[in-house]
Amino acid sequence: MHSLLITKKKKRSLALRWFTDGEIRNDEDAYFQGTDDSIANPGPYYQTNKYHEIRATLRILSLAFKNSDSPTPEAIKKKIEVEAYRALYGNPKPANGFSVTQYCGTHAALMHLCNPDEYESIISKSHRESILGVFDHEIADCDAVTCPEEQIKLIRERLYEGFTHDNLELKFRWFFLYASNQGSLDR
Question: Residue 18 gets which letter from DSSP?
């Protein structure tokens, strides 16, 4: 991801690296509107943490391929999932010269990519914490569920069917944003 504000012109120039001018949409629907004609702002945390995110990714990949003579894609995905979870919620030890010293969204992203049925596609630590804070009353009867990933999944399971939206893709992708704006779905 680019580390600065991305304008429509910049987005188009990046796309031209791989596609011809005729293959790229040139209408307003292809862009999100933002301040100063920007379409994306990675934010200061991402800009200052990029080095650590790359090191964290290299650490996970080096562990996933360690001691694997002929690994299957499923086995590698499982190793990545396990190591990313350990790094996100445990006390990850340095591996192959790569250490983790702070929160890295790449761990949440890798968990989701390896097992999208188990893990949300939310990489922001503050968004995850906000979801658990806003909807904690929905799982108050589940003291045995202490894993934040399981808690978020349980919240979605309990609230998802009660929330209606015309566009099913938007309902799934933006569920927590819509649900929090609707006050726990007005139940």
Answer: T
Task: Write the Ramachandran bin of 72: left for phi over 0, alpha for psi from -120 to 50, otherwise beta.
Answer: beta
Enter the tokens of residue 50.
């990029």
Contacts of 53 (CB under 8 A, 6+ apart): 46, 104, 105, 106
pTM of the model: 0.71
Q: Which two tokens stand for residue 152?
A: 């978020």
Residue with tokens 């990675």: 42
Structure tokens at 16: 């031209």
Cα-based torsion angle of the residue sequence 175, 180, 184, 186 in order, rounded to the nearest 10 degrees: -100
More confident residue, 68 or 126: 126
The per-residue pLDDT for 21 is 80
Token readout for 78 is: 């499982």
